[in-house]
Amino acid sequence: VQLVESGGGLVQAGGSLRLSCAASGSTFSLNAMAWYRQAPGKQRELVAAITGGGGRTNYADSVKGRFTITKDNAENTMYLQMNSLKPEDTAVYYCYADLRIGITNYNFWGQGTQVTVSS
User: For residues 16 and 7, is the Cβ–Cβ distance under 8 A?
Assistant: First the structure.
């Protein structure tokens, strides 16, 4: 299974970006997906998560009201719409998937995509 991310870049404070994460490979079912981020010198932190069916979401307090996580079940693709970006949102953003292949659960990470917000 591969997780391919896209959509990072450089944006001014107050701007918007949309990240995408497409899951492909073996036949699997998604238990949950999430976005994490890691800023220089800091630990990786959870940004937002969504259940496999897309019915439930969870956000870090720092991004509530500004970021929206969604999922296209047909395409096994997850999105993170980021609005009102702040310089403190600057980090490498990683896609994470908790999925099942057969009767076994696996965790996968994407390669990361850089988001830089200038002041």
Answer: no
